[in-house]
Specification:
This protein has a domain of 51 residues. It is built from six helices and two strands. A two-stranded antiparallel sheet has the order 1-2. A hairpin with a 4-residue loop joins strand 1 and strand 2. The two termini are 15 Å apart.
Length: 122
């Protein structure tokens, strides 16, 4: 139970614990559980302009990577994290333009959500 002393924030070696001053409680990321249950993306995945963070069913994410011609780095990938091998220089713009219109991850999808940035809350 949180006492509001913020000792856990100081002790955390990763710096991921935040303090909610209104509720006087410490908290850390829960992948926006309330949003995911409601069928929405976690805020970090929704606002990531470089598509470095994506969220979804693993098989769907793997298929999306294959559709974009990306190669999975199996040495780095774990059970729930997928790393893609880097693109050769000057191909990053071409890769994002290959995303299907209206799909998450393309410039058109981000433009539709522009200005809808939300702050992650506990």
């Amino acid at each position: 139970m949180c006492t509001g002393s913020r000792a856990c924030i100081e002790a955390c070696p990763y710096g991921v614990i935040q303090f909610d001053a209104v509720r006087r409680k410490a908290h850390k990321c829960d992948l926006c559980h309330d949003r995911v249950v409601a069928g929405e993306l976690p805020v970090c995945a929704e606002v990531c302009m470089t598509d470095a963070i994506t969220f979804g069913e693993k098989e769907m994410l793997l298929q999306k990577a294959r559709d974009l011609g990306r190669e999975i780095d199996r040495k780095k990938s774990a059970m729930s994290i997928i790393y893609l091998k880097p693109l050769p220089k000057n191909t990053l713009a071409r890769a994002s333009s290959r995303a299907a219109p209206g799909s998450s991850g393309g410039p058109a999808a981000r433009a539709a959500g522009a200005g809808r940035r939300r702050r992650c809350s506990p």
